[in-house]
Design brief:
The protein is of the alpha/beta class. The protein contains 13 helices and 7 strands.
């Protein structure tokens, strides 16, 4: 675990305690539990560590959804202007590229990475004017046209509104959208998918696990069958990238923002960069 990752995990604890304000003994027990876990499990991947930290938080703070309000508010904010964003996509020179870019920009709504801007809508408009650091969108569009089935791996609430718009823009007859099995950080579950009426544009399934990522060795058999059969995988978000970056398939595309320095270093871009990146692992 890099030092930056350790501090990110401890910052998560601080944020959760500041938000929920539990009694002192509960707060100190949670903090001590996380410190002990980090000390003895520093070698695990960050998605696995984050999973267990949030399990401890849900259990010890007796709250099954630590970011319920943030998720609801983010969905409501972006769904409230869905027609505006749809018109922006439709009227652009390249609707597929614009919708894909919006989906990437939406990835900033990530409380796990401590990256959510104060003025989300202004941030989105600003980022639309900036180029992608890695842009394999033309190849992605070609793959979408040729694919018989597409599996789209969801990430965060709020962001899911732009996922819906992107899927709608694809106009593909067989897209499946995957969500987390239980609440973890502000990642999407079936509840958030229902809030934005995702089933109007595609099928929705759970991946069977509560990691803020896609950890194939821990996902459900039903999800794995869908994953293996899909002609194209669209992986949204930094967390999903961390879980799947060692996969050996070329029909996998990562759409995310590099929100921390370790990930930016890994993909050789500046922190805060936007990527539509094909997984080229022949």
């Amino acid at each position: 675990m890099r030092r930056e990752c350790y501090y990110c995990h401890t910052k998560t604890v601080d944020k959760i305690l500041s938000k929920h304000k539990p009694l002192l003994n509960k707060a100190e027990k949670f903090r001590a539990s996380v410190e002990n876990y980090l000390q003895h499990n520093w070698y695990l991947s960050n998605p696995v560590i984050a999973t267990h930290i949030h399990r401890m938080g849900r259990e010890q703070l007796e709250n099954s959804d630590l970011y319920r309000k943030e998720k609801r508010d983010a969905n409501k904010l972006l769904m409230g202007k869905y027609d505006y964003w749809k018109a922006k996509v439709t009227n652009s020179k390249n609707p597929f590229h614009t919708a894909a870019k919006l989906a990437v920009i939406g990835n900033i709504i990530d409380y796990g990475a401590h990256a959510v801007p104060d003025k989300i809508e202004e941030f989105i408009e600003e980022m639309l004017l900036k180029p992608l650091a890695v842009d394999d969108s033309a190849m992605l569009e070609e793959k979408v046209r040729k694919a018989k089935s597409i599996l789209y791996l969801g990430d965060n609430a709020g962001e899911i509104v732009f996922d819906k718009l992107f899927i709608e823009t694809m106009q593909h007859p067989d897209v499946t959208f995957a969500v987390r099995n239980e609440a973890v950080i502000n990642d999407v579950t079936r509840n958030e998918a229902r809030q934005v009426e995702m089933t109007k544009v595609c099928k929705v399934i759970s991946n069977g696990y509560d990691a803020p990522s896609t950890l194939l060795e821990l996902c459900s058999p039903n999800f794995l069958r869908t994953y293996e059969k899909a002609d194209l995988i669209i992986s949204k978000g930094q967390g999903n990238f961390e879980g799947l970056m060692d996969e050996k398939r070329n029909d996998l595309f990562f759409l995310f923002m590099a929100k921390c320095q370790p990930i930016a270093d890994m993909v050789q871009v500046e922190r805060g960069s936007m990527l539509i990146k094909q997984n080229k692992k022949d």
